[in-house]
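A reminder from the course coordinator: this example appears on the midterm review sheet, so study it carefully.

Given structure:
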């Protein structure tokens, strides 16, 4: 049974005169919607309708205000504007006002602005007002473009386009969406390296001031992951992490890097080296412990031998002592293979031996040597198949060959992390969750756009990079009659350009 609750006294509608102002009209329409709600039965559906109607009214009013303010930022009279402007070392002359549709957070608006022709024939012109309003690729306002890019970090382009239409009434093609994301990413890139370094320096200061018995640690990891490509099936992409640990071995934060498939991962190596060098050059406190935590792949091995092993302090010049830690959990997988070969798959004896060897490997000095010694003692106690023997010797040789990078008891005593869980997790968060969904195939260029946006966001520098881009954008400057650029606020500038545009 539905119980209808009505109000005993309903106030009559308030008559409000509308004079064309969006806010006055909003006030009247909101009051009308409220009166309709009050005069009907109070039910979930009626309350939902009120909420949706208020949201639509607010968005429409904001769209009208935004359109009015954008069009009012530039005068209609040519004589109030500079006849010529200078932008990116090129000169442009005023032509005429042209309309264009702009995508905003409140829907599409029409902006009429003066178009300036390039003095060089055949070169593209520009709309100075667009630059002053921050209109970016895709003809979108900064507010909408930032939201689109942020959503694209986690969602497919089909999902983003559906969201744009549903939430903002904006209909984009795939090409327009890609162009917008490419432009947004390109604008942020110049600030990323500096912000990554600043974030690492902040964490190093926090680690140095923390209480505890260990020296702070700057830990580097890198790994590869296979992703589906349009050109040649699956190829190996790469990711790297730089983390800071405090004196209690707590991770304060991580910077993420990523690169689409590339031969020998050259670009990732260069970015990682530049980040480490610049961070150490600007760090003036006691040198933290330097740890390199990876598996024994060819790319991590080559990077250690070619770069880290030879790296010197950027300011002092002394060699840097990077400690290469072979990922504990990666080594444990080989010990598990030893257990399966010696005791059989999924046996209680094998599980007990495996658990015991993990403790030895982690806690005992020379733990790796003791593990392979114990494995040899069990080698002839039960018959093994040819496949089991092959698996045993492969795992045995791996542990024996690389045991010098398995001093886990010593690493833990010095406060170093022993697992590459941060980097393994990066493979999942940077790539798997976004790049390996059902049916996905990637191009190198478009994939790198999404990858860069994703690592910027995961590194926690998204808002700072966006703010830095807006603050650093060059604006067109009016040119005086003599041909020189008139500085904003000068008599020549104020005589030839609207005061708002010269500010």
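Designed residues:
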């Amino acid at each position: 049974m539905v119980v209808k609750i009505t109000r005993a006294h309903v106030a009559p509608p308030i008559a409000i005169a509308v004079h064309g102002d969006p806010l006055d009209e909003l006030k009247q329409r909101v009051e009308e919607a409220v009166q309709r709600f009050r005069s009907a039965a109070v039910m979930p559906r009626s309350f939902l309708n009120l909420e949706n109607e208020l949201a639509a009214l607010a968005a429409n009013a904001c769209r009208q205000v935004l359109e009015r303010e954008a069009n009012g930022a530039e005068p209609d009279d040519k004589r109030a504007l500079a006849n010529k402007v200078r932008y990116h070392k090129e000169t442009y002359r005023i032509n005429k006002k042209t309309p264009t549709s702009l995508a905003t957070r409140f829907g599409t608006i029409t902006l009429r602005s003066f178009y300036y022709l390039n003095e060089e024939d055949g070169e593209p012109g520009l709309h100075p007002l667009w630059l002053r309003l921050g209109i970016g690729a895709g003809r979108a306002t900064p507010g909408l473009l930032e939201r689109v890019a942020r959503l694209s970090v986690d969602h497919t382009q089909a999902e983003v386009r559906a969201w744009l239409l549903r939430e903002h009434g904006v209909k984009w093609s795939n090409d327009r969406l890609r162009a917008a994301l490419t432009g947004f990413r390109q604008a942020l890139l110049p600030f990323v390296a500096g912000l990554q370094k600043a974030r690492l320096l902040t964490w190093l200061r926090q680690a140095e001031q923390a209480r505890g018995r260990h020296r702070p640690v700057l830990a580097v990891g890198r790994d590869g992951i296979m992703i589906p490509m349009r050109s040649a099936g699956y190829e190996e992409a790469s990711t790297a992490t730089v983390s800071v640990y405090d004196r209690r071995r707590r991770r304060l934060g991580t910077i993420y890097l990523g690169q689409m498939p590339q031969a020998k991962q050259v670009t990732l190596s260069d970015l990682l080296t530049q980040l480490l060098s610049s961070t150490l050059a600007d760090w003036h406190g006691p040198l933290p412990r330097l740890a390199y935590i990876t598996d024994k792949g060819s790319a991590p091995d080559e990077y250690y031998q070619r770069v880290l092993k030879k790296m010197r302090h950027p300011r002092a010049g002394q060699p840097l002592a990077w400690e290469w830690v072979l990922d504990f959990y990666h080594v444990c997988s080989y010990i598990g293979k030893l257990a399966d070969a010696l005791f059989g798959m999924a046996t209680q004896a094998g599980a007990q031996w495996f658990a015991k060897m993990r403790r030895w490997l982690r806690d005992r000095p020379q733990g790796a040597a003791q593990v392979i010694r114990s494995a040899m003692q069990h080698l002839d106690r039960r018959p093994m198949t040819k496949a089991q023997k092959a698996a045993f010797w492969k795992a045995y040789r791996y542990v024996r060959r690389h045991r010098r990078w398995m001093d886990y008891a010593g690493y833990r005593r010095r406060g170093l992390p022993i697992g590459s869980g941060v980097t393994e997790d990066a493979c999942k968060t940077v790539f798997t969750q976004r790049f390996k969904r059902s049916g996905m195939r990637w191009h190198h260029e478009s994939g790198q756009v999404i990858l860069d946006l994703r690592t910027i966001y995961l590194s926690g520098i998204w808002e700072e990079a966006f703010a830095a881009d807006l603050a650093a954008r060059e604006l067109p400057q009016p040119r005086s009659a003599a041909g020189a650029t008139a500085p904003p606020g000068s008599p020549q500038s104020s005589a030839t350009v609207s005061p708002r545009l010269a500010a």
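The first helix runs from residue 22 to 38. The radius of gyration is 31 Å.
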